Amino acid sequence: QVALMESGGGSVQAGESLRLSCTVSGLTSDDATMGWFRQAPGKESEGVSSINWSGLTTFYSDSVKGRFTISQDTSKNTLYLQMNNLRPEDTALYYCAADRRDRVAWLLQPEYWGQGTQVTVSS
């Protein structure tokens, strides 16, 4: 059974940094796609960043490119999202999401979701 557990959210000032973590169990295929979605109040869910479990392929939405970095530690079955230079518009509930298929499928509708962790950025 696949389970995803996020941690690391919080409240920061604009320009500061946070690192989100997601512990993954039950899904360690190199072909699996894992990453982060976010949902802000009144806005559609956005696929922010993804990586395949082998670490060879990454994706970033235009809104976070150059500020966020996704990585994974396969020895710990953990996914990370380093978020630098945070902006108020980054405020959202961030979800760890995974799919056994490729990034295209992941962007459309990931198979597995965590419970979410809140990130709040004030100006």
Question: How would you describe this protein?
Answer:
- The chain contains one helix and eleven strands.
- It has 123 residues and is mainly β.
- Strands 2, 4, 5, 6, 9, 10 and 11 form a seven-stranded mixed beta sheet that branches.
Task: Describe the structure concisely.
Helices cover about 5% and strands about 50% of the residues. It is built from one helix and eleven strands. The radius of gyration is 13 Å and the shape is globular.
Outline the secondary-structure elements.
Layout lengths: L2 E5 L2 E4 L4 E8 L7 E7 L6 E7 L5 E3 L7 E6 L4 E6 L8 E8 L3 H6 L3 E2 L3 E6 L1
Parallel strand pairs: 2-11
Antiparallel strand pairs: 1-3, 3-8, 4-5, 4-9, 5-6, 7-8, 9-10, 9-11
Residue ranges: pLDDT <50 for 5 or more in a row?
A: none
Q: Considering DSSP H and I runs of 4 or more, what fraction of the residues is helical?
A: under 10%
Distance between the termini: 41 Å
Beta-sheet strand percentage? over 45%
> Could you tell me the radius of gyration in angstroms?
13 Å
Q: Provide the residue-averaged pLDDT.
A: 94
Strand count, sense and barrel status of the largest sheet are: 7 strands, mixed
Order of helices and strands: EEEEEEEEEHEE
In DSSP terms (H or I, runs of 4 or more residues), the helix count works out at 1
Structural class: mainly beta
Overall shape: it is globular
Number of strands: 11
